[in-house]
UniProtKB/TrEMBL annotation:
Keyword Nuclease on entry: yes
Name of protein: DNA mismatch repair protein MutL
Keywords tagged on the record: DNA damage, DNA repair, Endonuclease, Hydrolase, Nuclease
Family, similarity comment: Belongs to the DNA mismatch repair MutL/HexB family.
Primary role: This protein is involved in the repair of mismatches in DNA. It is required for dam-dependent methyl-directed DNA mismatch repair. May act as a 'molecular matchmaker', a protein that promotes the formation of a stable complex between two or more DNA-binding proteins in an ATP-dependent manner without itself being part of a final effector complex.
Residues of the full protein shown: 9 to 334 of 638
Single Gene Ontology MF annotation: endonuclease activity
Domain DNA mismatch repair protein S5: 200-318
Length: 326
């Protein structure tokens, strides 16, 4: 049981940033409006997530850490109708299998629950006065899986992975105020006022945000909106393009290629825009249960969506007279 938990954990929890991603997604699912992330030693010593979401009832705490006990998928139809970021019910169990976890949670201000999970086992649970929300502290990640620990890279690399995922989750949720601290250093902060351009300003810079073009386009199945760079303020890496499908940050090379194609010859070879692309669609058109980390999704009508992305950007740049013949 412990071993199978550790093996399964490896699929979801590759590195400190995976823990941050899963815990922040839980905070988002819990309807938090403020999410604070604190790490020490790039997350190897400590990862702490504090939210003001709906909290967990005392009686639900033990099951929250059981694999699949909370799985929201009951039928195959549910698989195509996922409205929360989490649905597999394995993140907390996976994290608890490879680290020491302390949970402090309350569904309303007043009496809350403190729980300690060690070696995947709930060793203590008691009541305590707390404010509403959830705080999860993950200590000594991978202490019992030396093979995994060996693959963890330098602290600066791991911290960059953490910053990258917090940035993307914040860009996907401008209505949530995020902070990320490494020790006492504030690494990022977003306002959480619901404005995407303001969120971009918080993450990159006010100058970058102001220089971007807003775009929007739709057809019968898809709606795409967001912000993207002018052709003359591009980057040398594709990593500054964030793709969100119904509020979920995903990776999809074809869609990014289609988006870039909208720039035509205006984009120099090896240059890429900085962009945030929000795609809204009927959940029935997307299957998010392709991979445990849920970052790869299967889309119906992907070619149609690709076309929409290309034409939306081409027309938007055309309106700026950037592509005279478009
Ligand atoms: P999943 O998100 O796939 O349901 P997780 O293992 O990530 O599975 O979380 C298990 C359950 O614990 C969630 O379904 C949710 O009910 C509860 N939970 C986890 N984190 C939080 C949180 N920050 N606030 C409220 N509930 C939470
Ligand atoms: Mg989850």
């Amino acid at each position: 049981e412990t071993l199978s938990n550790q093996i399964a954990a490896g699929e979801v929890i590759e590195r400190p940033a995976s823990v941050v991603k899963e815990l922040v997604e839980n905070s988002i699912d819990a309807k938090a409006t403020q999410v604070d992330v604190v790490v020490q030693d790039a997350g190897l010593k400590l990862i702490q997530i504090i939210d003001n979401g709906i909290g967990i009832e005392a009686e639900d705490v033990p099951t929250a850490f059981l694999r699949h006990a909370t799985s929201k998928i009951l039928t195959t139809r549910d698989l195509f109708n996922v409205h929360t970021l989490g649905f597999r019910g394995e993140a907390l169990a996976s994290i608890a299998a490879v680290a020491d976890v302390t949970l402090a949670t309350a569904t309303e201000a007043g009496l809350g629950t403190i729980a300690h999970i060690q070696g995947g086992k709930l060793i203590d649970q008691h009541s305590e006065g707390l404010r509403q929300g959830t705080q999860i502290s993950v200590k000594n990640l991978f202490y019992n899986t030396p093979a995994r620990l060996k693959y963890v890279q330098s602290q600066s690399t791991e911290l960059n992975h953490i910053l990258d995922i917090v940035n993307r989750l914040a860009l996907a949720h401008p209505e949530i105020a995020f902070t990320l601290k490494n020790g006492n250093n504030l690494v990022m902060k977003t306002a959480g006022h619901g404005d995407l351009q303001q969120t971009i300003a918080g993450i990159y810079s006010v100058g970058v945000a102001k220089s971007m073009l807003d775009f929007s386009g739709s057809d019968l199945d898809f709606k795409v909106t967001g912000y993207t760079s002018l052709p003359d303020t591009t980057r040398a890496s594709r990593n500054y393009i964030s793709l969100m499908v119904n509020g979920r940050y995903i990776k999809n090379f074809q869609l990014i290629k289609a988006f870039i194609a909208g720039y035509g010859s205006k984009l120099m070879v090896g240059r890429y825009p900085l962009a945030v692309i929000n795609i809204e669609l009927d959940p029935l058109l997307v299957d998010v249960n392709v991979h445990p980390t849920k970052q790869e999704v299967r889309l119906s009508k992907e070619d149609q969506l690709s076309n929409l992305l290309t034409t939306t950007i081409r027309e938007r740049l055309g309106r700026e007279n950037l592509i005279p013949d478009a």
